[in-house]
Amino acid sequence: MNRSVDYPSATRSRRGGAYRSTQWTSADGTEGIPVTIDRGLMQIPGDPHSGPDGTVDDLAGLRAALDEVDFRLLDAVRDRVELCRRVGAVKARTDVPVVQPGRMDLVHRRAREYAEDNGLSTAFVDRLFDLLIDEACRVEDTVTGTGSRPREDGGPR
Ligand SMILES: O=C(O)C(=O)C[C@]1(C(=O)O)C=C[C@@H](O)C=C1
Questions:
Q1: What is the DSSP letter of 30?
Q2: From the CA of 135, how far away is ligand 1's center (Å)?
Q3: Of 35, 61, 76, 114, which sits 20 to 30 A from 19 (CA to CA)?
């Protein structure tokens, strides 16, 4: 059996929202195989590339699963940024500084604990939350009209 499969084309809208299925085109021209995720396992009814227990064990299937996870990540990042925009509006109204070191500490600490409990690298999660918080501050700065972010050259503001 020819098991090579083209990279699946995710059919999800780029605008976001609930994402339950994707489709791919196999090398033999088979199109439109629906993929659903159920507790992390991809089930593809009737797909010849599925494993005997119905789980996907090939590269294309795993990449389709990655596509799903990537979109969930992007949806979560979009929601986080949107919430920070609203936080920024409240801070502007109430004259609260954008940068809150205590809160930033708590967010980092919580993420590190999650990493430890879930077998992730704490250094990676630290860098990830540095990026997320940096973007939050940038967005809040645009809402509050302040400049809270560290200078590019690392010098004092
Ligand atoms: O909790 C806040 O006050 C936020 O603005 C959110 C956030 C974050 O990204 O988690 C961003 C900037 C603050 O310095 C602390 C935390």
A1: -
A2: 10
A3: 114
